[in-house]
Amino acid sequence: MQFEHKPVQTSDYEMKIHHGQIAGYNQMHFQISVEEQNKNKVDKFKERLEEFKNIKTLAEAKEITQRIMPVKDGITVFRVGNAKCIIVNKEKILKITLRSKEEYINYSFI
């Protein structure tokens, strides 16, 4: 009596499930890395805004603004990571607002 051994082939369905799990893991890993990058961008921008904590006059605030984030006169809106920054730079006012889901930072100089 002789036994024959035939190689077992997995079905295409099993291969697709396995491939889908790998793709899902890669996508999840990518989303986590994007979230970390966005958080780092917001943290670095908040460090730059720390210079405005001890400023009392409009002239000092405008000088620092030109040095750390040159913006034109008027209203400038941009995104930093997952936060939205609005800078109002007019002749008699400078207002910097950073808004995210977690916090709200506002500096106003008149």
Structure description:
With 110 residues, this protein is α+β, with helices and mostly antiparallel strands. It is 45% helix and 24% strand. The chain contains two helices and four strands, in the order ααββββ. Strands 1-2-3-4 form a four-stranded antiparallel beta sheet. Strand 2 (83-89) and strand 3 (94-99) form a beta hairpin. The model has no long low-confidence stretch (mean pLDDT 84).
Radius of gyration, CA atoms, in whole angstroms: 27 Å
Q: Strand pairing plus helix content: what structural class?
A: alpha+beta
What is the count of β-strands? 4
Number of helices: 2
Largest sheet: 4 strands, antiparallel
Instruction: Please give the share of residues in helix.
Output: 40-55%
* Average of per-residue pLDDT values: 84
- List SSEs in N-to-C order: HHEEEE
What is the strand content?
15-25%
- First CA to last CA: what distance? 99 Å
Low-confidence stretches: none
Give the spatial strand order of the biggest sheet.
1-2-3-4
Give the overall silhouette. rod-shaped
Write the layout of secondary structure elements.
Blueprint: H1 12-49, H2 58-68, E1 74-80, E2 83-89, E3 94-99, E4 104-109
Short description:
By secondary structure, the protein is of the alpha+beta class. Helix content is 45%, strand content 24%.
Structure characteristics:
110 residues; alpha+beta; four-stranded antiparallel beta sheet; 2 helices; 24% strand; rod-shaped
